[in-house]
Amino acid sequence: MEKLIQSRRVQTPISDESEEEEEKDSLTEQLKKHNLSGTSQRSNSCIMLPPDEKDTPMRLSRAQSAELSQSTTNMSTPTSVKKKSRRRRILMKVNTNKARSEIDVLRLCFATLGWKESLGLEEDAQIVWFGLGPSDTEILKAVSQSTQKVNRFPGMTEMARKRDLCQVLNRYRRIFPKEFNFYPKTWLLPDESSQLESEMNPKKTYIVKPSAGCQGDGIYLVKRYKDIQQLKNGFQRSQNYVVQQYLTTPLLIDGKKFDLRLYVFVTSMDPLICFICTEGMGRFCTENYEKPSSSNMHKVFMHLTNYSLNKNNENFVATEDADNGDEGSKRTLTSVLESIRQLGHDTTTIWNNIRDVVTKTMIAISPILANHYNALFPEDEAQARCFHLIGFDLMIDSKLRPWLLEINANPSLRIDMQKEVSTGVFENLPSPLDQMIKETALCEALKMVTKSPEELSALDEFEHYQRLSPPTSSSYEQYLFFDQAREVYEHFTGVKGPGQMNSARFSRFARFANKLSTVCSGSRLVPADFDIIFKNLTRKTERVYLTLTDFFDFIVLLAARTNPERYESTPAEAIQELVDDLYELIEKVPAQ
């Protein structure tokens, strides 16, 4: 942890030309393994986005990006290097046609790595970059060549929505109530409205969030069920909200509430390979915190840490010097941990607990994302076509316990800030703190893209990134039965296409599953029972097939039905025993 706190920046000096050439030769050899070399030369002019786009960035030309990088060299930014662009060979070409507000930090990374930006045809680049979550069709169209990579895992945008994430985590918490008690108690609206009404306690505070919302939009606090605005207006079917128990005792620094934005880099879902960056961001409220009451629940600058909200407060303090990352309304993760250490707390334990939360979350969501990937790239057993930089938002309470708030499939990589230069007049200016943090996270992640799956599996750490414990380690292997269940699901549905288990495929699966000793040992189910379960699950979702998520619910129901006593006492063991038997069907029954 001392190393974590002290190493606030990446230093990548190039002492002489021979050292640089040695590094380039090494990387070139690695790229040859993947057939990822490229020499096509295309224009690097910047495509401007329409002015009405919500997150239209401050666009920098290549010359401006170079000037910004040079001007911040004196601040010891993490990737400041002596420029030897004329002697560098192009190692990777990245198509940035669909890049958005992250284009400026991307160009800084390209300059550091010696990579080439391409605005030509997507098939001419080794990496295709998407600024927003693309559809599966867009991903397939973009990476038509088998050696191309894309910076998005299919399905991640949907999984990062609050409702989808909480649905997955709630399933795990029902099975592992202690181990998965790292996020606030959550209800999904409108489906769980009745349950929420019966469980709400007026002495507690709750926070209402739109499932697909971002930047603090539509978030508010309530104490009573009747105060939920959507109940008054009536839910539309397309409107999904989550209601969570509000964390009323956060750890405070300088009297203010804060959360942490962490960066997690994922290179494979099966097997799960992911790394956590040891540098991130602390985002502070701009008013001193008080426990929620009827007189202050409306004060967003006190209760919500979102930068998009707090930047509008006159108390917001912009950090204009990256060397002062321990001051202001935005701070570096390492400086926040140092402040906590100075309060007399054990930051090593806090960091390890944060790693544990992130690892369990990734284990929970990876089976569904692996299924999305296999449906899109059924022939790619190495899972080497995608990578993803995910934003994890956590909060630490007064007992030093980290809580997961949400994950972000599209974390902001903007390196500018909005500043009021005169009354009512705002201007976007470079933000050295944002550049330092985000260039560190992105540049080092891009370096790992050039490594093979085997090399990534062997890494324990890489510069500012630490490898999260593999799920197969003894600490986490007990949570893997849903990943085994995924393989059963794919066996009976096929992974080409959407992988839907319709009634015919489910009946075929049920016919074989009903002969297993695990199923037979309890109250044996007849085909009609399977049909009823199938209809009940599809009726809830208004679909005519079971998704992988629905199939997981079926597995839980089947374990409870066939072995009720064991499920009541140790649900995880009952499910694991059932899944082990179902897994044998992969060898006994021909694939779909």
List the helices and strands and how they pair.
Blueprint: H1 2-6, H2 17-34, H3 62-71, E1 93-98, H4 103-113, E2 116-118, E3 127-130, H5 136-142, E4 149-150, H6 156-159, H7 162-175, E5 186-189, H8 193-199, E6 206-210, E7 220-222, H9 229-233, E8 241-245, E9 258-269, E10 272-277, E11 281-284, H10 300-303, H11 307-310, E12 330-332, H12 333-342, H13 347-376, E13 388-396, E14 402-408, E15 416-422, E16 425-430, H14 432-449, H15 453-458, E17 461-462, E18 465-467, H16 481-493, E19 501-502, H17 503-513, H18 517-521, H19 527-541, E20 545-546, H20 548-562, H21 564-569, H22 571-583, H23 585-588
Parallel strand pairs: 1-2, 1-3, 3-4
Antiparallel strand pairs: 5-8, 6-7, 6-8, 9-10, 9-11, 9-13, 10-18, 11-12, 13-14, 15-16, 17-18, 19-20
Helix pairs in contact: 3-4, 4-14, 13-16, 16-20, 16-22, 17-19, 19-20, 20-22
Describe the structure.
With 592 residues, the chain is α+β, with helices and mostly antiparallel strands. It has 23 helices and 20 strands. The strands form five sheets. Strands 9, 10, 11, 12, 13, 14, 17 and 18 form an eight-stranded antiparallel sheet that branches. Strand 15 and strand 16 form a beta hairpin. Helix 3 (62-71) packs across helix 4, helix 16 crosses helix 20 (548-562) and helix 19 packs across helix 20. The longest helix is centred in the middle third of the chain and has 30 residues, at 347-376. Mean pLDDT is 82; it is low at 2-89.
